[in-house]
Amino acid sequence: MSEHARRPRVSLGVDLRTTRAGDRVHLSSSDHVLNIHASGPVRVSCLASQHYSVRTRGEMFLLPAGHTDTWVEDDDSVGLDLRLPHSLLQRAAEDMGLDPDRVGVALRHHFRDAQLEHIAWALEAEARADFPNGLLYRESLGLALAARLLGHYRAEVEVRGGLSTGQLQRVTDYVETHLDEDLSLATLSRVAAVSASHFKTLFKRSTGLPVHEYVVQRRVERARTLLLRGELPTGQVALEAGFSHQSHMARWMRRVLGVTPGDILRSRA
After folding, report:
1. Which of 30, 140, 144, 181 is the most buried (most CB within 10 A)?
2. Which has the minimum average pLDDT: 4-13, 15-24, 43-52, 111-120?
């Protein structure tokens, strides 16, 4: 089997949405987002620069992963959000002979690109028809979109000794929010927007701990905090902290803290 055939599918997110007039907030995401205006003219103002313009059908915003933006629209509008996981951008970079760990996209507002627009309207038609051509067709359009972005709107990402401050903050915030879930290396590397192989090395350089050990330590600390509060039974505490069962939690608490859940409960007395 070829290397290309072994690579997992990486889907482009397609979201066709209607919004009311007023403030718009694009929150930081682990995905790169290309927003295409899909309705009639709308007056838009940038809160930061006080710049005003009229946005017409086909006009685009390109928002890199980890970027937050705000603006105001004076009218209701329809927008098409194309969400590119960084792993999709990296796959396109590999196909183009680029270093997948040094590529990103540049922030760009109010621009037009005929090729991107052609792909966008094909995806809009798919979304309106509930994706009749399936995942493979959407993935092929996603790769074409990523290749166009890398060819014309690429930003170089410098890989240094560890994760950047922003990358590390996104990863640790994600860990804290999802401690009770099955956290995988693949998921955390996507949040950091680097390949899984590099993420392990960069994370350890940044924190001094392997990823798995860091997650376990955070789970133990979460369990300790919940036990001290005394609001939940011990079995529920284990699940809330991300352990599979009570004995699993007790084993890791002994290793990390040198005490058992019972010792912590007795310390409250």
Report:
1. 30
2. 4-13
pLDDT above 80 (res 259):
yes
Whether 39 and 148 map to the same domain: the answer is yes
Q: At what angle do helices 211-229 and 165-177 cross, to 10 degrees?
A: 50
Q: For the whole model, what pTM was predicted? A: 0.59
pLDDT, tens only, 46-73: 755 567 788 999 999 999 987 878 888 8
* Sheet bearing 108-111, strands edge to edge: 13-19, 77-85, 31-37, 60-63, 108-111
Residues 10 and 77 in one domain: yes
Give the CA angle between residues 16, 195, 102 to the nearest 5°: 90
Please give the Cα distance from 59 to 36 (Å, whole number): 6
Predicted confidence (pLDDT) per residue in 144-156, tens digit: 999 999 999 998 7
The order of strands in the sheet holding 22-26 is 22-26, 69-73, 42-46, 52-55
Residues 12 and 134 in one domain: yes
Are the beta carbons of 206 and 159 closer than 8 angstroms? no
Give every CB contact of residue 20 below 8 A, 6+ residues apart in sequence: 76
